[in-house]
Amino acid sequence: MSTRGKMGSATPVADVDPYSHESSAAALARLISLVDIQARVVRNYEALSLSRHIYERALSAGRLGVWQCDLSTETLSWSSGTYDIFDLPRMSPLVRKQALLCYPAHSLKALEAIRTPAIKRRQSFTLDAEIVTPKGKRRWIRIAAGVECAGDRVIGLFGIKQDITEERLQSERQHYFATVDELTNLANGNQFQARLAEACKARAEGIGGFLLLINLDHFKDVNDALGHAVGDLCLKEAAQRLAEACGDAAVVARLSGDDFAVLLHPESSITHVNGTAARVVRTMGRPFDCGGHMFKIGASIGITAIDGCTPDEASQRANAALATAKAGGRSTYRWCTAGAA
């Protein structure tokens, strides 16, 4: 409907009074709807923040960090975990050359050797690398990287960095105990057999080096008379003397009990081999002072050339030469040639 004003003009009037009960209810409904939408936005934001917090905590628990590199600017984007791995302040702006300062030369060389070809080929890659943080801490990290492309162009790298220092140390400890004699810190029998096999395989024909098998003379008498504690001290001292006498050897090992072995390099001359064996005999002949007890033992040595033989054949020949040295009065060395075993 409409009313006519004093000037005779028509003035439109709303069909429904904006202040009527129905209009107020609609406005209230709209207001409630807006409040509900806002509440959902807040809840979603809080849920997103909580998810991000849980995500960051999960990465931290796994010593993981997410990273991204823009290849056009060399700008880095890191998660909190990545900053923590590198001991850098969280959320501080970074470019790649700053992060590379944490990589020692050998790690940097390995990284560039795998990263550059991966970008060219658009291939992902993984690498274990050592870093030194600004706080001086040495860590090992595992880098997993993917390539980001826009059409035909590579625009960035992204991935995960994980702190694997504990894993690396555990692996090194396992390798140590698998290859090193715990009492003497010399190579153990496992490592010796592997190295002997390598020497035999490397030179299936010709001279592949020299094998010396060494047994301590009269050690059993000392061990029985003075006890295992003194016996262990004697073995440690003997191992140290042996290592010093064979300083340029390929490997010096304790096989078991009072049995030791030495591998000399292929380029060693016969004179050098004889000189090494003579030094071992002399150094083992000097008196031992272990646990307050003075005594003398000695060493007998069997020697053979690794000349296309198998590891078992080399050991048999050296053992035959060692038996000859024992029979010849001990504290001496003897050679065994092919076929003499």
From TrEMBL:
Pfam family, one: GGDEF
SMART domains reported for this sequence: GGDEF
The PAC domain, residue ranges: 125-176
Annotated ranges, domain GGDEF: 207-338
PROSITE patterns in alphabetical order: GGDEF, PAC
Listed InterPro entries: Biofilm_reg_signaling, GGDEF_dom, Nucleotide_cyclase, PAS-assoc_C, PAS-like_dom_sf, Rev_trsase/Diguanyl_cyclase
PANTHER family to which the protein is assigned, alphabetical: BIOFILM ARCHITECTURE MAINTENANCE PROTEIN MBAA (PTHR44757:SF2), DIGUANYLATE CYCLASE DGCP (PTHR44757)
Protein name in UniProt: Diguanylate cyclase
Species the sequence originates in: Pseudolabrys taiwanensis
